[in-house]
Design goal:
This protein is an all-alpha fold. It contains seven helices and no strands.
Length: 231
């Protein structure tokens, strides 16, 4: 056997981690790597559901408005799209993206997100039933002048609430933010929409009382508005 040079014999060998240490680090690294696509998948799924909810809601609003009032009478208002609405939805998407990047754990509450999806579906169904039931009497703009086709609707879903269209929209809109797990937008949407309807309903019912007189008075006494804390 050939003898090694003194320098080679004295050179220290590189230390390698013990086998049990490598095994202990492996699950941690694997879990951290697996968490990234998992969080991204949750946020992406919520974003796609949100987009689908918007497209279906406004698309169906257009179809029904065109069916009952004619395509020539359908405008952006018929799709319930306003500057304030666009700003609100843009803020919601910005919040979702920001939280998905900075606080990804917020988007992993699938139980909460599924509750929001259920709210979206129920709100959509209630509103569309209200629109179909009222037919030509349902408009997106408050009528301040009586027209022959304007009738007081008290059957169907209107037996249980005076403004099912508003109730459905409130449930749908807040549900979209619960579905996205957006804590800020949940509170903001709830407060802003409730305040909006708390002013809109008395204004609308002022004209309904002028159009239908005592008939509407009796109806309003028996049936709730359909929105919490709004008589």
């Amino acid at each position: 056997m050939r003898n090694l040079p003194p320098a080679a014999a004295a050179a220290p060998r590189e230390a390698s981690p013990p086998p049990h240490a490598a095994r202990a680090l492996s699950p941690i690294v694997t879990g951290a790597v697996a968490q990234i696509p998992s969080v991204a998948m949750a946020a992406r799924a919520q974003a796609w559901q949100f987009a689908a909810a918007l497209v279906f809601f406004h698309g169906s609003e257009y179809v029904l408005a065109a069916a009952f009032h004619g395509r020539e009478n359908v405008t952006a208002t018929s799709l319930l799209i306003s500057k304030q609405y666009v700003l609100a939805m843009s803020f919601a998407m910005l919040e979702h993206l920001t939280e998905a990047l900075l606080f990804p754990e917020l988007k992993e509450y699938w139980f909460v997100s599924h509750i929001g999806l259920l709210m979206v579906i129920i709100g959509e169904v209630i509103r569309k039933i209200a629109v179909v039931t009222a037919g030509r009497s349902f408009t997106h703009v408050i009528r301040i002048h009586y027209e022959d086709q304007h009738k007081l609707i008290t059957h169907g879903v209107y037996r249980f609430m005076r403004h099912p269209g508003y109730s459905g929209f409130l449930l749908w809109a807040v549900g979209t933010q619960v579905m996205l797990c957006n804590p800020v937008s949940i509170v903001a949407f709830t407060l802003v929409l409730w305040r909006f309807f708390s002013k809109r309903i008395p204004y609308e019912e002022f004209f309904l009382r002028q159009f239908f007189g005592r008939e509407y008075e009796e109806y309003a006494q028996k049936v709730h508005s359909g929105l919490p804390f709004i008589e």
